[in-house]
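Pipeline run #58 for the internal structure catalog. This entry was flagged by the ingest filter as a single-chain record with no existing model, so it goes straight to prediction. Upstream metadata was stripped on purpose; only the residue string is passed forward. Reviewer on rotation: M.T. Logging verbosity set to normal.
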Amino acid sequence: MLEYVNPTTGGPVYKTMTFFHADAASGERTLPLKQSANLVFSPFEGAGYSLIGDKRIDWERFDTVVVPGGAWWPARQRIRQANRRFYRGQR
């Protein structure tokens, strides 16, 4: 995972939000994560699904998915196409 930073300060791009870039291989499953901050992610390549809490969310290129703070994410995430890339911001 790559974090984008303000090149002049080395801190977050915005004071209230950070941005990350991540790559995942086709068929990859990720471990569950629970955090207090809200999370927004947008896949730029590929397609898949995430289980957010107890709801399945299917996503594909250019969708925007919001994960509320305190929710488990992803309990399961399946990447259906190779070279999936997504950007996420969190507050």
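catalog note: Residues 2-82 form a domain with the Jelly Rolls fold (CATH 2.60.120.10).
catalog note: The chain has a mean pLDDT of 78.
status: ready for reviewer M.T.
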